[in-house]
Amino acid sequence: MPKGLTKRRPQTTARLLEAAQETFAERGFYGSSIEVISERAGLTRGAFYSNFRNKEELFFALFDLHAQRVVDRLDQAVGELDASDDPVRALFARAVTVDAAERRWYLLSTEFTLHAIRHPETARLLAERDRALREQIVGILARLFARIGRRPTADLDSLARLTTAVYEGSLAQSLVEPGELAPEELAVTYLPPLFDAVSEPVAPGEDAEQA
């Protein structure tokens, strides 16, 4: 491949991802064609297929970008955990942020999840991505418990699943009834006591990360 094409590839990929985000937000996953995405990016179908095999692969590239944003946000929140009387509540209030980009991602990811449920191979690929993200969240939860001087007594992978379910379920209800429920309300109200219930204090001088 000529060197010029290699150097241009990251720029082409970035343009396609940006165009896909905008198109998916407007038309949904099913309503967005490769032609429209390519045209919006100012590229040809050939340029699209030189970067992605299909729309599913494009979605997974967007998934990876979103997952990194989630990990970065949670990492920063734990790293800057304050010394308030209820630091876990303060952390969730800060970490559970919903802006226009998060709303668009929720709509797209929900639609894609339904698509994956109908297609077993796609479901397998989505589960792999979810598992990789959850592994990073488990590491962040372990750091959180260590920072607050508690040891988890429950499986952290299951706790990560439950935390995600609370967040996504709360967001769905909030988007349907924005005047009745704030996106972060359920997580901020119910996850802190849950985290207390599935952990125990660490004795002074004891390593919080020990089993």
UniProtKB/TrEMBL annotation:
<dbReference type="GO" id="GO:0003700">
    <property type="term" value="F:DNA-binding transcription factor activity"/>
</dbReference>
<feature type="DNA-binding region" description="H-T-H motif">
    <location>
        <begin position="33"/>
        <end position="52"/>
    </location>
</feature>
<keyword id="KW-0805">Transcription regulation</keyword>
<dbReference type="InterPro" id="IPR050109">
    <property type="entry name" value="HTH-type_TetR-like_transc_reg"/>
</dbReference>
<dbReference type="InterPro" id="IPR036271">
    <property type="entry name" value="Tet_transcr_reg_TetR-rel_C_sf"/>
</dbReference>
<keyword id="KW-0678">Repressor</keyword>
<feature type="domain" description="HTH tetR-type">
    <location>
        <begin position="10"/>
        <end position="70"/>
    </location>
</feature>
<protein>
    <submittedName>
        <fullName>TetR/AcrR family transcriptional regulator</fullName>
    </submittedName>
</protein>
<dbReference type="Pfam" id="PF00440">
    <property type="entry name" value="TetR_N"/>
</dbReference>
<keyword id="KW-0804">Transcription</keyword>
<dbReference type="InterPro" id="IPR001647">
    <property type="entry name" value="HTH_TetR"/>
</dbReference>
<dbReference type="InterPro" id="IPR009057">
    <property type="entry name" value="Homeodomain-like_sf"/>
</dbReference>
<dbReference type="Pfam" id="PF13977">
    <property type="entry name" value="TetR_C_6"/>
</dbReference>
<keyword id="KW-0238">DNA-binding</keyword>
<dbReference type="InterPro" id="IPR039538">
    <property type="entry name" value="BetI_C"/>
</dbReference>
<dbReference type="GO" id="GO:0000976">
    <property type="term" value="F:transcription cis-regulatory region binding"/>
</dbReference>
